[in-house]
Model the fold of this input.
Amino acid sequence: MTSETEAMRARRHPLAVLGVWAWQTALAWFAGWPAASLVRAAYGDDPRGDAVLWAPGSHALLDFLWHDAHGASAAVREAAAVLAAGAVAGLVPMATLMAIIAGTGRAPSVGFARGVGEALRALPAMTLLLVVVTMTQAFTLCAGAFAGELAESWTHAALGEARAQELAAVLCFPFLILAAAIGVTHDLARAAVVRQAVGGMRALVVGATEFWTAPFSLGWSWGWRATAALAPVLVVGEAANRLGGRGGATLVLLALLHQAVVLGRVALRASWLATALRHVPAERIP
Done:
């Protein structure tokens, strides 16, 4: 590994990481705004605000969903449309981050403007990769779920419900591992698009080749970061359950905790993408 490649570290580019965090925060705001507006219109005059929705028993929440079903469904559709568009548009800030990290140590250095330019150049290949890999992962997970359901139905009478469900879980596990491996290959292919300027399908071949050379070390590099990113979500989620429905300083604290979790997940994701960039050579493989 050359000194230039070794220098590709996400921690060297905190502003780029903050830029991806800002993008994700803005996207979440736009996705959640229709639902927030609907709740504000329904409970704007209540002195407790939307805290009434989280009262024990969930009577107010069920009443809201029943009487405002059309508005709630419209809010869900709008949020889904924003998130779907954001999944494609989000490739630009992600590719910009990768281009900036990949340019570490090069002269001239890759700044924001040049990084965006390289991201836009890579967008068609990144979009193709997103579609192909998403469909492949979906097929893999559906195949695992089908295999599990089939095994449970066949063995339910002979083994009992609990043992049949355990067998189904065991059969589903390899499909989950395979889906994760496909995801790792996807990120390696993205690194190939950035470092080698190749098309989507060629990048997928490069990503699969690189993953095959070191599946366990790459799987571990991705896995511990994914686990570390999940832990604060569970902790803050439990804190939100205990503190939910309160306003004032408690609400501000929850908002800060939520954004800290988002920023931490973005930083871990950037660290993994830097690992993928270091693993993929800059030269095209003949």
